[in-house]
Amino acid sequence: MSKIIIAGAGIGGLGVAAELAKKGHDVTVYEKGTYSSLAYDWHDDMEEQVYDGGLLEKPDPSIYFKKRPWAFVSPFSVATTLVRQPEPDLDLSTRRTEFSQFLADRAIKAGAKIVYGVAVQAPIIKDGKLVGIKTDKGDFTADLIIDCLGAYSAIRTQVPAAWGIQNAVNEDEMFYVWRGFFDRKEGVPGDADGLTNKVYLKHLGNVGISWCIDDGHEVDILAGLVGGNTQEHVDTVIAELKKEHPFIGDKIVRAGGFYRIPVRRPLTLMVADNYAVIGDAAFMTIPLLGSGLASGIYASRILADAIENANGDYTAAKLYPYQVAVYKKFGAVHAGVDYIKNWLLNTECDRINKVMNSGLIAEKDLIKVSKGRMLFIPIGELLGKAAKGIKMPGILLELNDMLMKHHKAYKLGLKVPETYDLAVNAKWAAKLNNVFKK
Ligand SMILES: Cc1cc2nc3c(=O)[nH]c(=O)nc-3n(C[C@H](O)[C@H](O)[C@H](O)COP(=O)(O)OP(=O)(O)OC[C@H]3O[C@@H](n4cnc5c(N)ncnc54)[C@H](O)[C@@H]3O)c2cc1C
Q1: Each residue's pLDDT tens digit, 3-45
Q2: Does the beta carbon of 31 sit less than 6 angstroms from any atom of ligand 1?
Q3: Which CATH number does the domain 3-65+95-169+266-329 belong to among 3.40.50.1820, 3.40.50.1950, 3.40.605.10, 3.50.50.60?
Q4: I need a labelling partner for 322 at 20 to 30 A (CA). Which of 124, 182, 302, 419 fits?
């Protein structure tokens, strides 16, 4: 039996706490918040497949429902494409606080302890190895520490550079969003096109997205920019959305604040001696969407298996199979999708409009993009698209270059070194990161 600390009651951390406690380990989760305020007071989307294969039992159905399809609106509302996902592929909109509470209850039932109201401040390192955590309630030591503290983790940002783990990422790899729920004006009909969930790509020409979701009772509004956001931007977005959707009321009934979401490929190294990083702390969200729930859950099982196989010897080399399996399960795809995200954010608005209007990127492609999957466009189809692109050869070349780099990043992701070797890992990471150099 090992003594294991999970720092942060995030999704992956709570998942791994349950798995490890079930196997008889002494597991303690330290969380700065409270049980009643875990996660967020809203619904987020998560693919239903997380419940397949016995990974996780389904929570009470009262906390989720099948989400309605997205409609993507191109910059300056030139084109709107509805993404009609097949029914089984529609995500489950899941109440976040209740879902985290479900995971916390499950971890407790398995034998884990969760201590609330403890803020982790720093790693404790002895003889070059992680041995514990410094918190506002004192120091705690363990055989293994799992970091689930989110993108700005107080542990990961302070571990020595020599461990090869990236402390910080570029600001333009973080999505700064404002999200708030407005009351809905009574008797005012919804949009005439019947589309309720609209995502505005590069809304008003900015590097980011906005959304407006009308559930008939409340209106969920998000105004997001990559790299930084301002109240002025949020006010402009809300004013514009109100003009377009007169049903949006004046009162914010829930949330109404700024949040940060990682939108990049995962860390190229997520383990060190006695240390593993999971969830947003390891940048496991789908880069284009900022969705991290499903990957956190998949990663929790992968990490629990790697820990079991390590058999009490928690060296980086023994924990490393976790990172390999993560890259094979979803990390390589996320690396590919990261490239599409960069292209969408950096290309001119006019080009996105033309691409969406001409069908160069069609609904079925957007379905894949909206699920964070790879775009494989068969040769015949590409030629067909080329015919459409003849009037805009520059765009076609740009699209082709984007698709090639999207695949290159994916393939490099799959080539994650099979065994732990810092020098080999650094070489691989450099190759992968090079695809993203501007
Ligand atoms: C507006 C918004 C919309 C989103 N929509 C979706 C969506 O639709 N689908 C989806 O899959 N994902 C979505 N996400 C992302 C999703 O919320 C995260 O990917 C998910 O929460 C997993 O992150 P995590 O649990 O690893 O980290 P976090 O959610 O950041 O959790 C970290 C935990 O650690 C705790 N903590 C942090 N610092 C300390 C400290 N110093 N000491 C102690 N405890 C600490 C925090 O209180 C928290 O409980 C969205 C995020 C936002 C902000």
Answers
A1: 999 999 999 999 999 999 999 999 999 999 999 999 999 999 9
A2: yes
A3: 3.50.50.60
A4: 124
